[in-house]
Amino acid sequence: MKMKIAVIFVAAFFIRFLSLDQSLWLDEAVTATAVTTNSFVTLFTQFLRYDFHPPFYYLLMKFVTLFLGSSEVVLRLPSVLFSLATGYVVYKIVKELKNESAGMWASVFFLFNPLIVYYSQEARMYMMATFFLTASLYYYLRIEKYVKETKMRDLVFFNIFTALGLLTFYGSIFFVAAVLIHRYIKTKKIPLSLLPGSIISLLVLSPLLLMQVENARASLLMVTNWKQVLGTANIKNAVLIPLKFATGRISMEPKIIFFAVSGLWTAFLLLLTLVGGIKNRSLIVIFLLTLAIGFLFSFVTPVLQYFRFLYLIPLMVMLITLGSGPISKGIVITGCLIFSLSYVLFPQFHREDWKSLVAALPAKDAVYVILPSADPLKYYISQGVHARVPLGELREINRSALPGRFVIVPYTADIYGFDYTSPLSKSGHRLIEKVSVRGLQYEVWQNVLPPFMQVDVELL
Question: Are residues 302 and 448 in the same domain?
Fold first, then answer.
């Protein structure tokens, strides 16, 4: 059995290195910029107050990049390692719940889950939080199992990992709240022994969190469609959670056939999850409570995006394992491998290709972009992919003295609700070329009017 488990983890490590050097996308470039351009002090004083995440992940990444550099592989390596560590904790939990064979299957379902494989290659905090919360679940289940002889060690480690989860990702609070409510339902007592980790971490975070909340409110007012990006409480976002948990981040043509297949696959996994829930009510209650709390909270602050609940996939695969027979186990791993390998082996399913976009930019033209979304451009310019003139703010284009020819990267212009085409067209500028790379495009604009007929955009 140990040899089988070793082979599983080696295979999981290998699949995560396929395409690990693909281009960073916006949020990953934010990570890179934050940890390479800030000191430990300015991370707090200049960056984190305008971000909306706790500091622990950024502090870790600051250490990593100080010693190993800031290439795509290095930036993503911690997520690879945290995903493998989570797979081991999943194995340990199900081994204690049932047996070693079931633990092995649960780790397989987790390690090759398509959404987990995708976020194992993401230079963000989600896999780190998933590890901490899965570890806290491990100790919580031990507390629940040995309730009459609870060991202080289990309580201490539960509180430590809970605190680390909250210090890594604010969305961890939904899971922690679900665990505490579950404990209250089971014992009819307020679970005071499970609270210290949460209380200490929230007290530590409160000064930073208050500043971040204030800045987040300002962003919601300034950015027209930001609420939709964050994830409002609606049926579509709720349905996307199980769908993405099952299929990952791929999409194929024709859409109707893909959605039919992925819908059936998702329904099959949900059925196994519910069957497993009959066999272990604690896991299913915590799973559903977390989703319910997150959904209700999204009526106040929009957070209902599937990746913010990534830490629930360990619970889902545990339930699937408990609800599966020999045949269904084979079907589950086959489906996971199909979706996971489709992602890693086919570049059309990879992240936005900023590396290629920067390399393709015309050498002498000025570039205008919405600067808060320009971190990928800045990252690849700093990596020497393209030597560029300073970037201009697209939203200031109405007040700029424009050159005769220039480039616009319209990334996130729709989110900011900014229409740049109308004033440019009125001033005699025309779109003469549009170049697309995976998930992105840039536009080349030129003033086609004779000099005596040209109108300053600022006057329009």
Answer: no
